Amino acid sequence: MFRIDKDDNSIKPLKARSFSELGFKERQHLQEWIAKYPSCLGEDLLIIQKEFAGFSDTQERLDLLALDKKGRLVIIENKLDDTGKDVTWQAMKYASYCASLKTESICGIYQDHLTKTGQPGTASELIADFLEVADLSEVTLNRGVSQRIMLIAANFRKEVTSTVLWLMNFKLQVQCFKVTPWSMGDDLFLNVEQIIPVKDTQDFVIGLADKAQDEVQTSSAEAARNTIRREFWGEVIRVMQTKSRLYDNISAGVANWIGAGSGMRGVGFNFAAAGKYGRAEIYIDRGEQSENKYVFDQLFAQCEALEAAFGGPLVWERLDHRRACRIKCETEADMFEREDWPRMIEFMTDAMVRIEKAFRDPLQKLNADVRSRTFEPEAGGDGS
Q: Does residue 9 sit in helix, strand or coil?
């Protein structure tokens, strides 16, 4: 840090000092400076208590407790020349203790602080003024797990910065401020610098943390869905094996479908299920769109006879905009709702038994016809 000398058109270096060599104390000095001028931390904060110890069954005290402009509690922990290695854990404990504080309790804490420090006013009115609302009934203080942590020290150990950076991935708002005393002659100066996250990139870093946490949550949700799919298909196969040998050698997976061969390449006796449906189907995808459409059209030409053999109507989907084709029997159901499983699985397995019975012989005859033909690739197929 430098002082600008306008007369000499030069800069003169200030001398970096330590709090201990200057005789400054954590509670007497640094804490008081921040309490009197909390905006040195880069935003408007309302200090509502110093040395707060209102936690049940513990004698621990947090340095400063504040509110930000969104009504969130801010736990401020001060260390002088070194953070030590436990400050993160210490602040997290305090944040957890404060998480249960309600508006009434927060007002009581602030009123006690006003009384102790001889400041006039009513806590609820002063908080409302700070939040720029007419009445505290318009806002919710300390909503959910919105608590913030600010760590202040001259030097941060790697154990602390590493932990803070990791915690930020979980949407915990933790900030680190490096405070450095400087001197020039008899004049003393204090520099307060936010080092985590770096001030100019704070929104970006928080955005990345949100994204990372969303991805963690998405990954966890997908893992849960995969577990349900595997269990669901296991039950489908179990029930199917009591009715037919078609699925004797099929294993449960985590996709939204499972399939068994029909004896004709690229034509499967498939089950498919998701959050809105469960179905048994013949799925046609031999790799070439023209070939798939030919197979479908040959079967569709036998529609009446095949549906009579099946014992009811089927849904015929030529899917002209896609490469594949489908013939299906479907019900509305949700594979992720276990109470739907008995009805859903009974419907699907019963339909599959009847589909195989109706289509097995026609597919064998069609297979010989298709193998004797040559199909030209068609432009415009999307792959499946």
A: coil
Domains contained in the chain, CATH given:
2-196 (3.40.1350.10), 218-371 (3.30.1460)
Count of other CB atoms within 10 angstroms of residue 298: 15
Q: Show the tokens assigned to 328.
A: 């299906």
DSSP secondary structure of 204-241: HHHHHHHHHHHHHHHHHHHHHHHHHHHHHHHHHHHHHH
Q: Give the tens place of pLDDT for each residue, 284-339.
A: 999 889 999 999 999 999 999 999 999 999 999 999 988 899 999 999 999 999 99
Q: Within the chain, which residues score under 70 in pLDDT? A: 56-57, 199-220, 377-384
Q: How high is the pLDDT of residue 169?
A: 80
DSSP structure class, residue 137: G
Residues in the chain: 384
Q: Is the pTM of this model over 0.70?
A: no
Q: What are the contacts of 29-34 at 24+ separation with CB within 8 A?
A: 30/78, 30/80, 30/152, 30/179, 31/63, 31/64, 31/78, 33/190, 34/64, 34/76, 34/78, 34/152
Q: Helices marked H in 82-178 — which ranges? A: 87-98, 103-117, 123-131, 158-167
